[in-house]
Amino acid sequence: MKENFFRSMTWMHTWVGLLVCWLLYLIFYAGTLSFFRDEITLWNQPALHHVQTTETRIAQQKSQIIAGFDYLQNTAADSPRWGIYLPSQREPQLNYAYEKPRPEGQRFGGWQDHFIDPQTEQTIEQPRATKGGNFFYRLHFDLHYLDVRTARWIVCFASLFMLVALISGVVIHKRIFKDMFSFRANKGSRSWLDGHNVSSVLALPFHLMITYTGLITLIFMLFPYPAMTAYEDGVRGLFNDVLPTNVRSKSSPESAPLTDIEGVLDHVYTNWPNADLTQISIRDPNKASATITVRASTGTQLRDQTPTLLFNGVDGSLIAKSAAQLSNTEVFYDSMTALHTGRLANPLLRWLYFLCGIAGCVMIASGCIMWAKRIRKRMKKQQTASFGVKLVEALNLATLMGLPLATCAFFIANRLIPINTVERADKEILAFFLTWLAVALFALFKRTKAQWRQLAWLNAVACIAVVLINALTTDGNIISYFQNGQWALFSFDLLCIVFAGLFVVQAKKIPTQIQINTQMQGSRRSAKTKLQEQS
Amino acid sequence: MHAQSVKNSQTVSITSKLSHIYQAHSYRIAVFSRFLAAILGGYTFTAVFTSLLSITLPLKKSDAVLLSVSLTILIYSCVFIWVFAVKSLIRIWITILLTTAGLALLLSVLKGWL
User: Fold this and answer.
1) TM spans, by residue (chain B) (predicted)?
2) Is residue A407 included in any domain, yes or no?
3) I want to staple A2 with a disulfide (CB 3.0 to 4.6 A). Which of A7, A128, A151, A257 is the partner?
């Protein structure tokens, strides 16, 4: 492309990075929040705040399943699907769910949950309708409002660009080790470049891993061709081959009595003594085609495929079981997905995931800010900014400051929208996108340092508002969470306060930077020439 | 004499402007073509190459497919970077088209599609 490899890579890093940086920021941002998906969902459902994990969690599972079968048989004998979701460390409540009758022409009727406190065995009042952490989880690869397939293709290509930008970033980085330890604060673009380098290099293995494995999770959509070449029926053939429990029989309208669940459970516990079960799904209960799928937790193993047993729902015989031992290639493939989702992570590792994700956001954010700053610097005094530069600056402000504000709006909406509102969950999401849109319109209008400062203050206020409104509208607050040892909720509120603090620091920093710029006009010139030599 | 030189200089400036515009656009076209080669060319090459890999790797069928699928992204990103590293655009297109066609031919022969 350019005269030499180094320059070509610099060019590519800049342009490929710029092309997708805002979308990547959204993906990284929402993905980072998704590491705490269950915790966010919990925060969004105050009705479940007081449910606590029992000490005999695993020992209780058998009786919980049997009681669940009784409940579902009495309440929803005609439903096409039942699910029994057992309490886990991160989700302490027990849930007996069934699919509601399917509306004409639809393939899915939605789940009706029935939550139970495992400690008191009492029914919990139906929590408010919310997508909770699942909203961010879906957002990071389905992008909302878009057709799912289109969105995933867009996300795939953005991730590919990210991977390419990461690799070229390493190539153009001559002093990778030295820069790991150098951050020169308050030096204008030099600081931005240092910030970009530090956040990239320190968490580089994470960035590479999360991008590559992220693409792997969508790989059968992106590259179905190897499977299509090797198998007659393509990807489905591969899955049936690799996952023996994946077989799906046709639904039959004939009714047949459901097998005795205790017999099935005896079978389960002889196969897996001391198993930590996670969910039981029953397809076509009380029909001739009934099946019962039993899944166990993968625990802290580096494995994504859950151990699964598939039973015939009429005679209780075992149809298929997942392979106990994976082949080397299966381990290689499977562990990549497991690394991406981080379900294996214990709390400490989960925080590390989260911090690395934040580093990724900082890397992307500093990258796009630096781009706009450099173009501004190269411009002559009387030159007006081109449309492209203005667009980049507007998108920077709208994305970087808009997303956190929209997130706060989502949480505030969760507490303020009346509980019985129709389509409540969608209204929370609407609050998210409307806030973001408002920031974007604001950014189109003006985007100088003053706007950055105003939005930083607004974000700080919004973060504090989340904590305060939570304290006012629910029976808990950050202090009571600390006293009762509700660590997930406590950390949530604490993080809001920490981010509020960071936004205040940001708002305070911006004017000082203006002062420094005017003071150090002379010294910045020399820094600028140095930068140009480098690039 | 004087008038002619003015006219001359005018035509010169127009042609230089035209060539300038052409150059500006040819640069854009070149960049567009390069992105096309990287995204579409890279995608097609990877698709054909990994499909071939999935039936030639000396492993169990499911393992061969899973391994080739796991390698797709690595191959794709390598091709992508290569496209931006090589100076001659023509060489890039010829290399991509020839290798992809060659691999596709080999794949068709092995699968008996021809």
Assistant:
1) 35-57, 64-84, 90-110
2) yes
3) A7
**Domain count across chain B:** 1
The residues near A223 (Cβ < 8 Å, ≥ 6 apart) are B46, B47, B50, B69, B72
Residue A471 has pLDDT above 50, yes or no: yes
Q: What is the pLDDT of residues A279-298, one digit of tens each?
A: 999 988 888 888 999 999 88
Interface test with A, best of B79, B84, B106 (most A CBs within 10 A): B84
Residue in chain A closest to B91 (alpha carbons) equals A1
A331 domain-assigned: no
Q: Does B46 touch chain A (CB under 8 A)?
A: yes
Asked if A182 and A26 count as a contact pair (C-beta separation under 8 A), the reply is: no
Whether residue A254 sits in one domain with residue A230: no
Q: Report the chain A residue with the minimal C-alpha distance to residue B90.
A: A1
Regarding whether A309 and A441 lie in a shared domain, the answer is no
Domain containing residue A467: 389-535
Nearest to A226 among B50, B87, B111 (CB): B50
pLDDT of residue B111: 86
* Residue pLDDT, tens place only, A141-180: 999 889 999 999 999 999 999 999 999 888 887 666 555 5
DSSP bridge partners of A320: A310
Among candidates A160, A228, A333 on the partner chain, residue whose Cβ is nearest the Cβ of B70:
A333
List the end-to-end C-alpha distance of chain A, in Å, as a whole number. Answer: 15
Rounded to a whole number of angstroms, the distance from the CA of B107 to the nearest CA of chain A is: 9
The burial of A533, by beta-carbon neighbours within 10 Å (0-12 exposed, 13-18 middle, 19 or more buried), is given as exposed
Residue where the block lists tokens 């849930």 = A95
Q: Please indicate if any CB of chain B lies within 8 Å of the CB of A336.
A: yes
Distance from CA of B101 to the nearest CA of A (A): 16
Residues A348 and A397 both lie in one domain:
no
DSSP element (H, E) containing A399: helix A387-416
- Parent domain of B52: 2-111
Count how many residues are written for chain B: 114
Distance from CA of A123 to the nearest CA of B (A): 45
**Model's pTM, two decimal places?**
0.87
| pLDDT of res. A524 | 43
Given an 8 Å threshold on Cβ–Cβ distance, is B72 in contact with A9?
A: no
What ipTM, to 2 d.p.? Answer: 0.83
Q: Give chain B's radius of gyration (CA, Å).
A: 23
What would the pLDDT profile of B46-58 be if each residue is shown by its tens digit? 999 999 999 999 9
The residue of chain B with its CA nearest to that of A214 is B73
| Residues of chain A contacting residue B72, judged by C-beta atoms under 8 Å apart | 219, 222-223, 226
In a domain, A336, yes or no: no
| Whole-number percent of chain B with pLDDT over 70 | 88
Residues in chain A with CB shorter than 8 Å from the CB of B62 are 238, 241-242, 330
B63 vs A513, residue with greater confidence: B63
Which residue in chain B is spatially nearest to A19 when comparing CA positions?
B35
- Cβ atoms of A200 and A356 closer than 8 Å: no
